[in-house]
Amino acid sequence: MSKLSDQAFLLSDQYGDASNLDARIQLHRRFSTNKYGWTHWAFDQLTLPPVCRILDLGCGPADLWAENLDRIPAGWDITLTDFSSGMVAQARENLRDCGRPFAFGLVDAQSIPYDDASFDAVIANHMLYHVPDKVKALAEMRRALRPGGKLYASTVGETHTWELFETIARFDPEGQFQHEIPTYTLENGAAQLAPWFSAITLHRYEDDLEITDAEPLIAYVMSMGEAKSVFTDDRLAQLVAYVNEQIATHGAIRITKDTGMFEAIAPRAATEVAN
Ligand SMILES: C[S@@+](CC[C@H](N)C(=O)[O-])C[C@H]1O[C@@H](n2cnc3c(N)ncnc32)[C@H](O)[C@@H]1O
Questions:
Q1: Ligand 1 and 58: CB distance under 6 A
Q2: Do 85 and 16 contact (CB within 8 A), yes or no?
Q3: Could you give the CA distance from residue 34 to residue 205 in angstroms, rounded to a whole number?
Q4: What are the phi and psi torsion angles at 105 (to 5°)?
Q5: ∠ CA 72-78-81 to the nearest 5 degrees?
Q6: What is the Cα–Cα distance from 74 to 51, expressed in whole angstroms?
Q7: Closest C-alpha residue for ligand 1 atom 12
């Protein structure tokens, strides 16, 4: 099974706590060409009424909320959930002194423990590609949404960060770092949502990376898969030297980003979608 949707691996290694995700977020924060920032942009996409109930699935450390605190309407009742208890603990910690209430829960998106039609919006921000049974998760999201409620489900495109993998593969041709296309992408997402949701719209976020410092790129690589056990000691030092040499030669390592957010509506009537 791909590590991307290997739930046991994700729980124990990748998302046991927020450190791996943070390493990747730091690279994006420092070297993204679009300085507006994904979390601000993602928040802009939430066109919701001033009073509503929102469920965030796979919330991670809750950056979407922590970085938009001053923009959240007082009437939004927000439940933050993740299937990793380490992530829920980090989300709770990051919002501890924020001065407004949030609810938290340990929730697998494939089995949502809330009543039918109990939310006005469900957010699945960069998480559906980790879920092995997306049909089950999407059915659960629709069930938890009131008819007419909104799903916001972001993801990446097929070419997202391919040069990063190519750079590592040039250094380590026999290694495990191959660019893997996730199972839920900007290219195929609408087709996956279509049996469950109507009025599907894709909003794209324009961005790329221009990396001029080896250290955060190495931290990003080390945050993925089993890199920590592959690149140790001398091999890690060689990788650092290789990345430094690439930056010195080309001025920067340029990496394509392709990210976006699907917005869709839970149908009011069965006839609005095929399912
Ligand atoms: C790439 S992170 C995104 C975190 C956050 N939404 C963000 O955008 O910063 C993916 C998150 O999905 C969570 N996740 C993976 N599989 C899940 C599942 N089946 N149910 C709920 N959460 C899951 C992980 O624990 C992780 O926190």
A1: yes
A2: no
A3: 9
A4: -160, 150
A5: 130
A6: 8
A7: 58
Determine the angle formed by the axes of helices 162-171 and 233-250, rounding to 10 degrees: 120
Tokens linked to 154: 């972001």
Distance of CA 114 to the CA centre of its chain: 22
Q: Which residues contact 275 (CB under 8 A, 6 or more apart)?
A: 195, 196
Q: How many A from CA of 82 to the centre of ligand 1?
A: 6
Domains of the chain: 3-160+176-208+257-270 (3.40.50.150)
Residues forming beta bridges with residue 204, ordered by sequence position: 260
**How many Cα atoms sit within 13 Å of 124 on the Cβ side?**
31
Measured from the CB, is residue 60 less than 6 Å from ligand 1?
yes
- Taking the complete model, does pTM exceed 0.90, yes or no? yes
Q: List the chain pLDDT tens, one digit each, 275 residues.
A: 688 999 999 999 899 999 999 999 999 999 999 999 999 999 999 999 999 999 999 999 999 999 999 999 999 999 999 999 999 999 999 999 999 999 999 999 999 999 999 999 999 999 999 999 999 999 999 999 999 999 999 999 999 999 999 999 999 988 877 778 999 999 999 999 999 999 999 999 999 999 999 999 999 999 987 788 889 889 999 999 999 999 999 999 999 999 999 999 999 865 566 44
Centroid of ligand 1 to alpha carbon of 77 (angstroms): 20
